[in-house]
Design a protein that fits this description.
mainly beta; 6% helix; globular
């Protein structure tokens, strides 16, 4: 446990050492560094961010799969609710995950993530590069994501951002795995419970679900985020 806390604190210091801003929604999916050969997946994600100023609601629908033993490519359509309460399409995303080492071969498992987002109807782009890290400790697993993000375009301020996500999970059983999640960015530090489950229909077909409720700790006022995700692999 001391090692886990030391690793998280070291990673947080590394992320916040950059003189950058991260003013978007930090709470989202915690990525694992694994790619299954020949996997195909359909994914739906929902993020609800509630503050004193109102509620920001965003959804993603994605489709993709692996094209070799270590790389997976997925495309997303993103929808958001505007200030008038209308929900509509807002962005495209293209995401590449790369499993850097064979699972279990070294002391920990490593992966990388590359993502490109383009806003609908705007001259606004976002590129993300990150490392994915996971280590098992008995029946528990620690997963850490560290991202460096660059935003640019005529309708947005050109700037660098950073994000940090961590998930400490207890593998109670396949269908129910409670977790503790931590999210950090510039002017944001949030923590809360999470739940992960997996049901296998066959060797190649499975349904995975995730949920989490994160409370922001570093600022006064109401700031809660709820996330929900369903992923069907076939």
């Amino acid at each position: 446990m001391r090692f886990i806390l030391a690793w998280c604190l070291t990673s947080l210091l590394f992320i916040t050492s950059f003189n950058v801003r991260a003013d978007g929604i930090v709470v989202d999916k915690v990525y694992h560094p694994y790619v299954l050969p020949f996997e195909r997946e359909f994914e739906w994600r929902l993020i609800s961010h509630q503050t004193d100023k109102g509620n920001i609601l965003a959804q993603r629908v994605g489709l993709g799969g692996s094209f070799n033993d270590t790389m997976s490519l997925e495309g997303y359509a993103v929808g958001e609710r505007d200030d008038n309460g209308n929900f509509g399409f807002s962005a495209y995303e293209l995401e590449l995950r790369w499993q850097l080492v064979e699972q279990g071969r070294f002391w920990a498992d490593w992966g990388a993530l590359f993502e490109l987002e383009m806003q609908e109807g705007k001259d606004s782009y976002e590129a993300t590069t990150g490392f994915l890290w996971e280590k098992e400790f008995g029946r528990t697993s620690l997963t850490i994501n560290a991202f460096l993000v660059y935003e640019w375009g005529g309708d947005i301020k050109n700037e660098w951002e950073t994000e940090f996500r961590a998930q400490y999970r207890y593998r109670f059983r396949s269908e129910f795995q409670p977790a503790l999640e931590l999210y950090a960015g510039e002017d944001f530090l949030g923590i809360g419970p999470g739940f992960i489950g997996l049901h296998r229909f066959s060797a190649k077909r499975q349904l995975k679900w995730e949920a989490g409720f994160v409370t922001e700790l570093s600022q006064p006022g109401k700031d809660h985020s709820f996330r929900l995700a369903l992923e069907f692999e076939f």
